[in-house]
Automatic annotation (TrEMBL):
Name by which UniProt lists this protein: Siderophore ferric iron reductase
Pfam families: FhuF_C
Residues of the Ferric siderophore reductase C-terminal domain: 201-221
InterPro entries: FCR-like, FhuF_C
Gene Ontology terms, MF aspect: 2 iron, 2 sulfur cluster binding
Alphabetical list of NCBIfam families matching this protein: sidero_Fe_reduc
Originating species: Aeromonas simiae
Amino acid sequence: MMNPQLDALDELARRLLPALQRTGLTGREPIGKEGNTAPVAALMAQLQQANPEAGRAYWLTRGWSLLTWQPLYLAILAVHGLGRVPPLANLLQYQQEGMVAGYWLSGEMEAEPNLVRRIERAAAGLRPLLATLAALMAEAPRPRLRAELLADDLLVALERLAPHLPELAAHPLPFLARRWLAALELPTPPRLPGEDPRYLRQRCCLHYKRGDGVLCDNCPRRQQALAQRVA
């Protein structure tokens, strides 16, 4: 059945983030069905096999970020790109070879003219999905770390999408960041996107622990190392 608003979301996502594509219901086992832990277990096993040297902390951190990146970006794109509230409770995701990319979404994309209310409604649909994703992990990062990683990923996404979505560009980014963080009940870092030339993450993603890994440009460890050299 045709759904013009979901089609518009898919088109916007493909244009800005080619990996974020609506794939249709495939033969692969989807991530998102409550109680179905098999696809998440397969993802975590693939992460361990691909980078055994990186260690448990990296696998958990990477797994959580992979499970949550698509919902975060879809929420921002729907809210600020289309003026709609996405039906994220119905989101199914797909994983393959240690990556989560591709989704299926059904339901109505409801219009909401009030910006703050739109953020709050999208977050209300996002929160239970995030709780389900954490529950599907045999071992998840502890709650505080999950929240801090989510806050970082959300703020990086807002910063990344701001040049491409007129509504994001039309409002102060710190204002929107605070609205999203409050609606998702996530911690607010000392500095927000738009307050510095580039947002500095509060939590390290631990990519540097991989054999081929380095510190990310916005990694707090990189800034700490620079400060120590200056001192």
